[in-house]
Amino acid sequence: MTSAKLAAHEYLDQRGIPYRVLSFPPTTEKGAASVARALGFRESQMVKTLVFETGQGERVLVMVAADKSAISGSLKRAIGSRDIRLAAPAAVKETTGYEIGSVPPFHWQPAGFRSFLDAALLEEETLGVGAGVWGNEIVLTPADLVRASGATVVNLTRPAP
Fold first, then answer.
1. pTM of the predicted structure, to 2 decimals
2. Which end of the chain has fewer beta carbons closer than 10 Å to its terminal beta carbon, N or C?
3. pLDDT tens, 13-70?
4. The CATH number of 18-154 is which of 3.90.960.10, 3.40.50.150, 3.30.1300.10, 3.40.980.10?
């Protein structure tokens, strides 16, 4: 566990976005659900940061709760492509600079990079996101996560009416 300021912390500090830093044992099993258990949160409060790739070569960030999965059709509509797939670990590292498991949802995106946040996350009081180092979690409000990530809020996990 590190007490040093990480790039994700500096990014939030520079923008005046409030957050808390929590630590969990680095021996914790990988995955947002495991982090939720280690920190005493509900899985619906821990955010999975997933990188998807389109057939046109665009990569996008998708954020959903640890206990949810994006509905394929909803995800394809949001991204605007029928040809999407989860990016390979090497592509995630190349795109974000981070290994899968603790990709922060902000600070690394170049201009024009698109991020999507599942609307169900807005119903939580606080959310936990990766800080870039396994064993570190950033806790902030949904509104502050949207502000920090520049994400488009869209329904990704609930069936359309």
1. 0.94
2. C
3. 999 999 999 999 999 999 999 999 999 999 999 999 999 999 999 999 999 999 999 9
4. 3.90.960.10
